[in-house]
Amino acid sequence: MTEESTAAQGPITDGFHLLIDALKLNGLNTIYNVPGIPITDLGRYAQGEGIRVLSFRHEQNAGNAAAIAGYLTKKPGICMTVSAPGFLNGLTALAHATTNCWPMILISGSSEREVVDLMQGDYEEMDQLAIAKPLCKAAFRILHAEDIGIGVARAIRAAVSGRPGGVYLDIPGSLLGQVMDAAEGEKSLVKVIDPAPAQIPAPDAVARAIEVLISARKPLIILGKGAAYAQADDLVRELVEKSGIPYLPMSMAKGLLPDTHVQSASAARSMVLKESDVVLMVGARLNWLLSHGKSKQWGEPHSKKFIQIDIEPREMDSNIEIAAPLVGDIGSVASALIDAMGDDWQKAPEEWTSAVRTKVVGNVERMASRLQNNSNPMDYNAALGALKNIIKDRPDAILVNEGANTLDFARSIIDIYKPRKRLDVGTWGVMGIGMGSAIAAAVETGKPVLAVEGDSAFGFSGMEVETICRYNLPICVVVFNNNGIYRGDGVNRSGGEDPATTSFVEGARYDLMMQAFGGVGITANTPDELTRAVAEAMDSGKPTLVNTVIDPKAGKESGNIGSLNPTSIVADARAAAKAQV
Ligand code: ADP
Ligand code: TPW
Ligand code: MG
C-alpha cells in the first residue's frame, strides 16, 4: 500500500501495534524477551506503548520468568523470542510451564512461510508451529493482521482455562509488517470475558466426598501448587481448619497456611503418609513426587481412600483409584465442601491429630538443635538455619530455591508463612529456573526475593545477574558453593588429570560475578557472616550475591532422590545376586 493511498483512506495500523494493543486490552502488561529479527521493534514499540519489556540474556530464563509470572498472577506470562534457535531456547520453559500447569504464552517470530514450507533455507528457518505442538497445551499461528485480536484471545483462553498451561503463538515476521485501517483494526481486537470460568462441582460428587470424609479415622489433606495457584487462600484455610485434619503441603504449597500452623504435618510426613486412611488431595497430583500414591511409603496397598480436587477430570484415577473425584476449581469445590460440612461438623479424631502433633513437635525440636551448629566450613543445616531466620523476620519476601541438597534441605528447613512465597524446580525438578523465577517474582510482586541456589543450579541461569543489576531488582542470590554437583569431593576414576564429572573449580568466587555488573558481592564463611550479608541485602533491596562456602563433603548424591538413580537399582540387583550365591 502506498502512502498516498493510505492517506486517502485515513489512519492505518500495523501488525506490531495490533499485537501490542491486543495484549494491553487483556491486561498483559509485561513481556519477558530476548530481542532480534523479527521482533526487535515489537519490543521497542511495546516499551513505547507502556508495556514493561524486560530483556534477558537467554530465552530460557525469559521463559522461566514468564512461567512464574503466570503462576503468581493467574494471567499468562508472556515470553517473546526470535525464530528457530531463540524459539527452541524458549520452548524448554514453555514445556516446563505446561508440565507445571502454569499459564504462559511463548510468542516467537518466524521466517517466511513460503520459504520455510518449501525448506529453501530461509534465515533461521524452522517449522516452529509443528515443533511446539506436542510440547504445550495449544499452538496457534496468525497469518493476517485482522486475525491478531482473535489469535491473542484464543491463546489467552487456552492458557488459563481449565488446567492452565503453555501456549505457543507463531508470529511470522511478515505479519508484523502488514497494515490495515486503524478503525477496523481496533474493532478486530477481542477482550476476553471471564477467561477462566468457575467450575462448580456436581452436588452428588460433593455428597460422595463428604461421606468418605466422615468415614475417616485418620484423615490427611495434601495441598499442592494447584491450590496455591488458585488464589482461593481463605477458602483453603477454612476447609483445613474447619475439618481439623492434619495437612501436608507440597513444596510450592508451603505457606498456603503458615508452616508453623498446628495442623501442619510436614515434620511427620512419613507417619501421615503411611498411617492415614483417607487422603484429600487439593490441587496436587499423585505423580513421582508422591510415589504415585502406591509405594511402600503409603503403607499397605489399598489401605486408604482418596478424595481428589482437581480442575482436570482426566487427572482422576491417573495412578490409583480415586474414591471421590471432585472436579472443579479449588475455590468452588472448597466452598461447596465447607457448606456441605454444615455447622456441627465433627473435627478429625483427637486420637489421630494428637498423635501426629506429638510426632511433629518431637521432630521439630530435634531439628532445631541441628540448625545451630557452628561447623566450619558450614554444612547445609548451619547455613540454612541462618536463612530460616531471615525469612521468619521477612515473611513477605519470596524464596526461590533450586539445587539438589540445597533444594532438599531448604525445603524442609525454611518455613514459609504466606501463599505463593516459595518458587522452586517444580514437577520436573529442573535446574535453571533460578534467576528467571527471581526476576519475575521481583517484577510481578515488588517484594524482596531470596534465591537460594546450589552452585550447579545457579550456573544454568547465572548470566542473568546482569539483568538483575540492569533493572536494579531487589534480589539477593545466595550460592551454596560446595564446589560441585551434590558434593565437591568427587574423584576421576581413571586417575587422569581431568576433574571428576561432578566437580567444579574449587573455591570459585561467584560474588565477583555480581560485582562485575555493579551489584554487591560478598563471601560468607560462617552463619553470622551469611546472616549479616543477606539481611543487609534484603533490607536495602540492592542486587546482591552471597558466595556461601559449604563443606564439599556435606551433601548426598542426588540429595533426597538417590533411589531414582539407576545405579541404586544395579546395586540392589548385585546385592540380591550375592545373597543367592
Ligand atoms: P504439586 O506438585 O504441588 O503436587 P501438581 O502440579 O502436581 O502440584 O498439581 C497441581 C494440580 O492442580 C494439577 O493437577 C492441576 O490440574 C490442578 N489445578 C490447577 N489449577 C487449579 C484450579 N484453579 N482448581 C483446581 N485444580 C487446579
Ligand atoms: C536441566 C540434573 C539435578 S540436581 C543438579 C543437577 C545438575 C545440580 C545439583 O548440584 P547443586 O546442588 O545445584 O550444586 P548441591 O547443593 O546438591 O551441590 N539438567 C537439568 N535439570 C536437572 N535436574 C539436571 C540437569 C541435576
Ligand atoms: Mg553444589
Q: Please, could you describe this protein's structure?
A:
51% of the residues are buried. It is built from 24 helices and 19 strands. The protein is globular, with a radius of gyration of 26 Å. The protein folds into three domains: 12-188, Rossmann fold, CATH 3.40.50.970; 203-360, TPP-binding domain (Rossmann fold, 3-Layer(aba) Sandwich), CATH 3.40.50.1220; 371-490 and 497-563, Thiamin diphosphate (ThDP)-binding fold, Pyr/PP domains (Rossmann fold), CATH 3.40.50.970. The strands form four sheets. The protein has a six-stranded parallel β-sheet, sandwiched between helices. The protein has a six-stranded parallel β-sheet with strand order 15-14-16-17-19-18, sandwiched between helices. Strands 10-9-11-12-13 form a five-stranded parallel β-sheet, with helices on both faces. The longest helix is centred in the middle third of the chain and has 22 residues, at 350-371. It has 581 residues and is of the alpha/beta class. Bound molecules: adenosine-5'-diphosphate, ligand TPW and magnesium ion (MG).
User: Segments where pLDDT lies below 50 for 5+ residues?
Assistant: 1-5
CATH topology of the largest domain: Rossmann fold
| Sequence of strands across the biggest β-sheet | 3-2-4-5-7-6
Count of folded domains: 3
Write the layout of secondary structure elements.
Blueprint: H1 3-9, E1 12-14, H2 15-25, E2 30-33, H3 40-48, E3 52-55, H4 59-73, E4 77-81, H5 84-100, E5 104-110, H6 113-117, H7 128-132, E6 138-141, H8 148-160, E7 166-172, H9 173-176, E8 179-181, H10 182-188, H11 203-214, E9 219-223, H12 225-229, H13 233-243, E10 247-249, H14 269-275, E11 278-282, E12 305-310, E13 324-327, H15 330-341, H16 350-371, H17 380-393, E14 398-402, H18 405-413, E15 422-424, H19 434-445, E16 449-454, H20 455-459, H21 465-470, E17 475-481, H22 510-516, E18 520-524, H23 527-540, E19 544-549, H24 566-580
Parallel strand pairs: 2-3, 2-4, 4-5, 5-7, 6-7, 9-10, 9-11, 11-12, 12-13, 14-15, 14-16, 16-17, 17-19, 18-19
Antiparallel strand pairs: 1-8
Helix pairs in contact: 2-8, 4-5, 4-19, 11-15, 13-15, 17-18, 17-23
